[in-house]
Amino acid sequence: MAATTGAMNWYQRLIVGLAAFAKVKLVQVGKEGDGVSAPFSPAGTTLDKDWHELLADQTDAREAWRTNPLAKRLIGLTTSYVVGPGIALSSEYGPLEKFIRAFWYHPSNLMDLRLDEWSDELARAGELFPVLFTGADGMSEVRTVPASQIEQVEWRTGDYETELAYRETTGPGEPEKWWISPANIAAYDSDADGLRPWMLHFAVNRPIGAIRGESDLAPILTWLRRYTGWLEDRVRLNAAVRAFVWIVYAPQRLMSDLRQRYARPPQPGSVIIAEEGAEKWEAVTPNLNARDAKEDGKAVRWMITAGGPGTTLGDLGEAEGEGMKAGKDTDELRRRFLLRRQRYFGHILSVLTVTAYNRWLEVGNRRHRPATVQDITVHAPDISSVDNEKLAGAAVDLVQSLQGLGQMVGDSEALRRYAVRLYTRYVGEDVSDSEFDELLKGVKEHDRAVQDPANQGSGNGGQSSAGYPWRLPGANGRSVGP
Fold it and tell me: What is the spatial distance between Cα 298 and Cα 50, in angstroms, rounded to a whole number?
């Protein structure tokens, strides 16, 4: 071999040396390193979908929302219940309450106008990626990056719930673009442009161990496509029903004459006079078996609503005919789903506002204490007005029971506090500690006023309230009790 190598000229020796250096190895197409197949690109943890699969789901869900009326209605139903006429935040901590008003109604934020599209995006994509751009004065402006542009989430080793950074998709040849999470140490560094923007991430429909969320439409996209195809077929077939073929029966001697006479079919409304027994006309039309098609369509719609966000056929304007009990069960299922989604949406708004507030403190307002989500109260609309009616009736029954209990045990401070707490709970209102103390103080003052002999005959009809240590307002605003 050495002699052979020695007999090579300098060019041949160069080629052999380069080949040995490169160690070229054949790789079967489809295997790792083939230079053709795209590498596996995790969007989050190993339990998350591959980025390309997740992107396809989000793209399909967005396209279905744009073009499919059922998909648009399902997403719209969720938003109409979750957001309703609007959601508001408040706080008993003065500086935070003042910041909430300034942050929410800042001309670059106008949070009230963003709630609907955020709720739509959360249901449609399964994720929200809001970004806080903080100015020199500490006030943050909110923008939202589409979930379909965030291809990778970096998290703390051993703690996938602590997210550190988010990589946004970029074009070929462009540098990588990363957004920083507030949990990242680098989030508190300044760059040449000033404070670094912070990105937050919220997700729904994700299993334990996964980071990325999934669309509410993901389980039913296949059935939406099938229903669309089925409807298109039905439209084409029903269009064919309106077309028919005339078959004319006639003696052999008249065949040639009839072919020339009816080379063009008669116009609608034409009158044809024919010799009796000489011609016989018969129209032939397709038979669609519409009864079977009706049940098939309903079965597909059932699959769509079963995988939808707590929806039923009644939400699509169709009576289900399952009876009163089944209707109540499905309504309760939907209500609970929507309550969970509304509670999480309120959590999103609280975390975003608290994060903006605490950064406002860091910039130059350190005289105030930092805030947590516990400092914020979310005021969300009722999911159903029926709940209010039930709560009002329960409150009336509760107060009447407590009035009887008061007659048995007398004027007890502990029972008084317990009664007021039960009342606020049964009317479905979240009452803070300070509000509760104010309410209890008002009850005590009312008791002293009605028990004062100077007030007899004014306001209580001359009746003593002894034995009724509390007199709470009923559902209609009037006092309840004897």
Answer: 34
- Asked whether residue 412 carries a pLDDT value surpassing 90, the answer given is no
pTM over the 0.85 mark:
no
Indicate if 1 and 94 belong to the same structural domain: no
pLDDT tier for residue 469 given thresholds of 50, 70 and 90? very low
What integer pLDDT is reported at residue 464 of this predicted model?
39
Q: Are residues 365 and 223 in the same domain?
A: yes
**What's the rounded Cα separation, in Å, for the pair 222 and 300?**
10
Domain hosting residue 398, numbered range: 385-455
Distance CA 473, CA 479 (A): 4
Confidence grade of residue 40 (pLDDT, cut at 50, 70, 90): very low
Alpha-carbon distances of 128 from 122, 447, 461, rounded to whole Å: 6, 51, 59
Task: Look at residues 257, 260, 248, 129 and name the one whose alpha carbon lies nearest to residue 197.
Answer: 129
Between 29 and 214, residue with greater pLDDT:
214
- Other Cβ atoms within 10 Å of 311 Cβ, number: 23
**Buried b / exposed e across 18-27, counting CB within 10 Å, b at 16+?**
eeeeeeeeee
Q: What are phi and psi of 421, to 5 degrees?
A: -65, -45
If one counts the domains in the chain, the total is 3
pLDDT of residue 419 exceeding 80 = no
Give the DSSP H or E segment for 152.
strand 150-156
SS3 assignment for 324-376: HHHHHHHHHHHHHHHHHHHHHHHHHHHHHHHHHHHHHHHHHCCCCCCCCHHHC
Alpha-carbon span 331 to 348, nearest angstrom: 26
Please indicate, yes or no, if residue 251 is contained in any of the structural domains: no
330 in the same domain as 404: no
Given pLDDT bands bounded at 50, 70 and 90, which one contains residue 344?
very high
